[in-house]
């Protein structure tokens, strides 16, 4: 479903990586690894179309993403390294706001169910500025359950999560893959998810 070939990326004078190629079929995931500054975030941003590649091709369902005829962007959800919630909104409003930015209307019941799954029952109506760092991350992660996305692109999403949330995210990823979804993840930690391909930058 996702075929990437020969991707190259430079930042300033520095070549971060070249000839990055991988293929993911339904139900498969990729763990992007590398030292600080190796280019993991750059690769993910390039993959989701937030920055241009120096070279290479991305094909989604057999169609080149660059051609603009692919449904790729609509079929992925990206949680970036610095993705954040809006402090002045509550958890429910945050989910509805981010859905609206993606051109979706999110039903309140669906949003509440996602927040409940993330262990935020009873916290839905509080402004997120009063939530703990880990609870804010959980609000962010609830987005994964409110999008019908085939591809999850997740940059260091295990940061600031307690062991229960790490385990829960592993379960959510497992369910996503079992439904035929795909995932590309960066993490400096071992991931609570069996299988997976490794790409070391
Ligand atoms: N817009 C930019 N302009 C200049 N340099 C950049 C830019 N974006 C990234 N870089 C540089 O590219 C290199 C790779 O950054 P990137 O964030 O992709 O690394 P990473 O592997 O995700 O690192 P970490 O594990 O620390 O998160 C770094 O040296 C960074 O400073």
Automatic annotation (TrEMBL):
User: From which organism does this entry originate?
Assistant: Rugosibacter aromaticivorans
What name does this protein carry?
A: ABC transporter domain-containing protein
Give the matching PROSITE patterns: ABC_TRANSPORTER_1, ABC_TRANSPORTER_2
Q: Where is the ABC transporter domain?
A: 2-201
| Keywords linked to the UniProt accession | ATP-binding, Cell membrane, Cytochrome c-type biogenesis, Membrane, Nucleotide-binding, Translocase, Transport
Q: Which SMART domains match?
A: AAA
NCBIfam families (UniProt xref): ccmA, PRK13538.1
Matching Pfam families: ABC_tran
Q: In the record, what lineage is assigned to the organism producing the protein? A: Bacteria, Pseudomonadati, Pseudomonadota, Betaproteobacteria, Nitrosomonadales
* SUPFAM superfamilies for the chain: P-loop containing nucleoside triphosphate hydrolases
- Going by the entry's taxonomy, the superkingdom of the source organism is recorded as Bacteria
């Amino acid at each position: 479903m996702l075929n990437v070939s020969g991707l190259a990326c430079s930042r300033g004078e520095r070549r971060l990586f070249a000839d990055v190629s991988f293929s993911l079929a339904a139900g498969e995931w990729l763990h992007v690894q590398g030292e600080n500054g190796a280019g993991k975030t750059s690769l993910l941003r390039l993959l989701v179309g937030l920055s241009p590649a120096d070279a290479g091709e991305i094909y989604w369902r057999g169609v080149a993403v660059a051609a603009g005829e692919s449904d790729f962007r609509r079929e992925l959800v990206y949680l970036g390294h610095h993705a954040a919630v809006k402090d002045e909104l509550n958890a429910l409003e945050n989910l509805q706001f981010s859905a609206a930015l993606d051109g979706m209307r999110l039903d309140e019941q669906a949003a509440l169910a996602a927040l409940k799954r993330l262990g935020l029952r009873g916290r839905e109506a509080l402004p997120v500025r009063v939530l703990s760092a880990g609870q804010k991350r959980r609000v962010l992660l609830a987005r994964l359950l409110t999008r019908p996305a085939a591809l999850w692109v997740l940059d260091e999403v295990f940061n600031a999560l307690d062991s229960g949330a790490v385990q829960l995210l592993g379960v959510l990823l497992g369910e996503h893959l079992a439904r035929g979804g795909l995932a590309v993840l960066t993490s400096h930690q071992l991931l609570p998810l069996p299988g997976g391909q490794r790409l070391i930058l």
